[in-house]
Each structure stands twice: as C-alpha cells, then as structure tokens.
Amino acid sequence: MAGKSLVTIKDITLIGMMVAIIELCKVAMGFLPNIELTSFWIIMFTLFFGRKMMLVVPVFLLIEGAMYGFGMWWISYLYVWPLLSLVTWWCRRQQSVWFWSILSGAFGLFFGFLCAFTTVAMGSVDGIRNGLYAGFVWWVAGIPWDIAHCAGNFVLMLVMYQPIRRIMKNISY
Fold it and tell me: Which of 98, 92, 106 is nearest to 39 (CA)?
C-alpha cells in the first residue's frame, strides 16, 4: 500500500494560485515606488493557509529570481519574506485590522534594514568594519523608500484586510 502524499493536487493548485496572485499584483503595482501587495498577500495567505506558505514562499522566490535575476537583492529575499510569514504565523491568533496594519507597516519600514544584512555580509569580504559601513550606508540611503513602503503597507492592509478576510473565510479549507 502506497503512503499518503503530503501535498495533494488541490494543494499544488492552491499554491500555484497564491504565487500567481502575489506575482500578478507585484507586476501590476511595479510602477509605484515601494508600494506593493506582496507583504499583504504573504500575511493573508499565512493567516488562512498556514504551513502551505512553506511551499508558496520558495516558489515565489524562485520565480522572482528567474524573472529578475539572482542578484544580491534576491539573497535578501531568501530570509526577509520567510521572516514575514513566520512572524505572521506566530501572531496568527490576532484578528485586529490595526494589529495587522501596524505589523505590515513596520515590516515595510524595516525592510531596508533587514536587506542591509546582505550588504554587510558581502562588504565584509574586505573586513567586518567595511561590511558594517557598507550596510549602514546602504540602509540609511534607502530610508525614504522604507518610509514609503511603510505607509503603503499600512494603508493597503487597513483598507483591504476586512474585505479580503471575509472572502478568504469562505474559500479556505
């Protein structure tokens, strides 16, 4: 007797749809500076589909790398997006739109700081001091973009959380 599959065809379809939604929104909003729905969807999908996100995020990351190249930014994505999903999973019992809006905004605000760790690591090839300096300069230069990211994430979550939550309650299993 064959063992039961851990991932069903229904799961594969759902994972494909979640990745497609994230990518479609990312491309559609690409003309806006640091305003994105990726954070929103990773939070919402983690809340409603839980552990399936352990497959969604890596597929999303591979598609991102394939579409835009596997640069230094992509290395940051390897820990930044899973971190958002993990924090969401830890806080999954929260239901307040304000909580999720603040978390999403904070993630946007600290996105550049989190990504700076890659710059620190790459710059440390010439010595840890050079790496720390490079990471700090990179992060500080991006603070205006992080503020826009914070505001966008906060407002998008504030506006979309309740209606999407109602819809997802009806379709999740």
Answer: 106
Q: Which tokens go with 43?
A: 């939070």
Neighbours of 71 (CB within 10 A): 11
Q: What is the pLDDT along the chain (173 residues), one digit of tens a residue?
A: 466 778 899 999 999 999 999 999 999 999 999 999 999 999 999 999 999 999 999 999 999 999 999 999 999 999 999 999 999 999 999 999 999 999 999 999 999 999 999 988 887 777 778 888 888 999 999 999 999 999 999 999 999 999 999 999 988 65
Predicted TM-score (pTM) of the model is 0.93
Q: Is the dihedral of CA 19, 22, 23, 24 positive or negative?
A: positive
- Sequence spans of domains, the chain: 9-168
How far apart CA 118 and CA 134 sit, in angstroms, is 10
